[in-house]
Amino acid sequence: MQRLYLLTCVRKHTTISARGLTPSQIGRVRASKPDVRLYSAHSRQAPQADNNSFFPPSGSGTWSKVDPSLIVDIALKTLIGLGVVFTGGSLYVFWYKRNVLSKIEAAFNETWDDAALVQLIKQELSRFDLLTPDLEHAGLKRLAAKLFEVNPRRQEQDFIDYIVRGETTGSYFLLIGPKGAGKSGMVFDAMLNIRNKGSVFLEAHPDLEVFRLRLGNALNYEFSEDMQAGLFQRPDPRSGGPAMDIERALDKLHEVAMGSGRRRPLVLVITKIQNFHNDDQGRNLLLQIQQYAERWAIRGIVTVVFTTDDVWPYTLLRKAATLMEVHSVQDLDWGMSKRTLLCRRPDAENVDSVVHVVGGRQSYLNKVSRAEEMLQAAEDLLRLEKAWLESCLGLIPDCDNDGEVVIQQKWSLHCWTLLREFVRLYRAKQKELGDSWDPLKLPVIPAWRCQQIMTRPDYLDELDRLDVVYIDMNANVQPDSMLVLRAVLDIVEKEGFDELLEDVRCRVKEIENLRR
């Protein structure tokens, strides 16, 4: 838009005296108006301004009388202001980066004081209704002794303590075992013994955004979201997605570990990594963390501990693993299971019957020990497990000729065929050993043999995901727990089950023949 200026041209009139003029002439002089026109600043029709112009466009007049020193002064002040802003911003960015590293290091230096430990032990004792009035105001030593009484120490606990204390270098670890076997509990007990110094603990999540937040909270890292220097940031710190944020967090942890000068490595515990989706995004994240674990293990600065219930993370990590150690965590044996229940319920009856139903699974023992009637609670768990199996693997002998129904029946047919084989092996071992038979010993079938029995290799992983079976690191398959085996025994040994299974097989074959 062109700048406009006001050029006022007032026609000059000869001074006329009022004397000698008629009244009509005087009126005409008063009614005369100045000639005012608007011109563009670049218009060729604009007349040249004379000395009576109000805003001369040329450099003449007062506008041409500007002191050059004033321009230099303004320029110097502007440069000084920009320099102060740039220097202050650079110092702030430098301080912020140093502060980020200090906060991450403080996350590993944070320890639980006596008050926090007392609160944690009281919460654990209250879970089993063992927090008596005389223990409400007890000290740390007495509460710790009581906790040790109700939680007998497992054989694997010494090894877990050895890892969490940072006494081992050059390796990172994968703890694999069925759900509820006590993997995370042993890691937490080890952290409790060292007051959580030098270690952080977080749980995996299928949503990478949620896992990003959990990793940031564990490391005390804000992913530059609290940085007040938007003027000096070229890209948005969140523009790369959760994978890039996790990469930044792990890289900052690498800087802290390299510059900490500790005698023992830091410990990063990530539990339940089977929660990551078994797709490209979840697998890429696991490999991303594994690459840092390998690098840290070589330098001996950070020890990473993974725990998983399923076998697919192990099969993924072992492809690129050179320094990974895998340890299996199994259920408690018969004697340890009885001891656990008796420590929590000294006056309990039918302990053998309870253990015979739920087995040595730590999570099931915790549930029944809190119940008033332990045997009734164990039977309730068995009834729920049996109902879940029948609904998940239901058999329909007269199924409809529908594609999805047939696929579901084929799935149930192959699964029950494998479970029936587990029952046959369990009863055969019981008959063979007689009195020396261990009722908590689960039958085991190699994975390749299970695929032959099911005639479908892809169904085995799905059963592992549903916690119907458990696949260990040696590719051996067993029922997921004694409770699952008890439920399978009740279903398979029921009269008419073999005929039902055969009817479903014939119906599926009939439908497939009709489609051909």
TrEMBL record:
Keywords: Membrane, Transmembrane, Transmembrane helix. Residues 391-512 form the AAA protein C-terminal winged helix domain. It comes from the Eukaryota. The keyword Transmembrane helix applies. This is AAA protein C-terminal winged helix domain-containing protein. It holds the Pfam family WHD_AAA_fung. The lineage of its organism: Eukaryota, Fungi, Dikarya, Basidiomycota, Agaricomycotina. It comes from Suillus subaureus. The chain crosses the membrane at residues 74-95. InterPro entries: HTH_AAA (IPR056808), P-loop_NTPase (IPR027417).
